[in-house]
């Protein structure tokens, strides 16, 4: 039987770009009779959206249920399904049976591949520190977005998902970061840094990390202003400033290394580190 997975691959590309979590269920082997042909694929999304089909019926319903569980678990898995009615005798070890209630009598192996979106990291400022951050982050499985108001500066940056030339104060009119993002603020102006910080808190984006490149004196002043300007008490738990781990160095590249190290520590729940932050 012929089938076309073109739509599946198009949907996979679109889903990855949009940051959706999903599972690719692929028929990798079939023995005996049954509707599921090797090579067939089906996408199962966390919101229960389904794209494609592995053949329909009770088998497909069971695969959808298993796929949703695998999205939650996060691990790839190979499952074997027995296309027989419940209680029917089989030579297969009972621990390996996934009875579907079908009468085909065949066996099908489905591989579930869990696809999780890359975590997004927004870098405000494409100057020396911004460029160094991109250099060190590009191989760390982040979706990197660099924002700067200077188009010429952004032309010097490569290997990122997006380069946004924008007025810093208006950037969020066109960009809607999801919860759990990472933000690094390192523009050429402390006043701009403050306005971006204030905007992040006003939008209540629930970030995983906000790294602000600033001196201890500057961040103290900014925090005083922030508390005065906001009509609520900001949650500073995810604000790290001065940004970075205390590993030494003052050059843009060394500062970037310390910030990337801090992000990795937070990302993987490593708590035994000395941070530069004063809050």
Helices and strands, with pairings:
Layout: H1 6-18, E1 22-31, E2 41-45, E3 50-52, H2 57-73, E4 77-82, E5 107-115, E6 119-124, H3 128-137, E7 142-148, H4 151-154, E8 162-165, E9 182-185, H5 190-203, E10 209-212, H6 216-229, E11 239-240, H7 252-267
Parallel strand pairs: 6-7, 6-9, 7-8, 9-10, 10-11
Antiparallel strand pairs: 1-2, 1-5, 2-3, 4-5
User: Can you tell me the overall shape?
Assistant: elongated
Gyration radius over CA: 25 Å
The fold-level CATH name of the largest domain is Rossmann fold
Report the helical percentage: 25-40%
Number of domains: 2
CATH superfamily of the largest domain: NAD(P)-binding Rossmann-like Domain
Unreliable residue stretches: 88-97
End-to-end CA span: 63 Å
Counting helices, strands and paired strands, the structural category is: alpha/beta
User: In the CATH classification, which architecture of the largest domain applies?
Assistant: 3-Layer(aba) Sandwich
What key attributes describe this structure?
five-stranded antiparallel sheet; 279 residues; single chain; 11 strands; alpha/beta; 2 domains; six-stranded parallel sheet; 7 helices; Rossmann fold
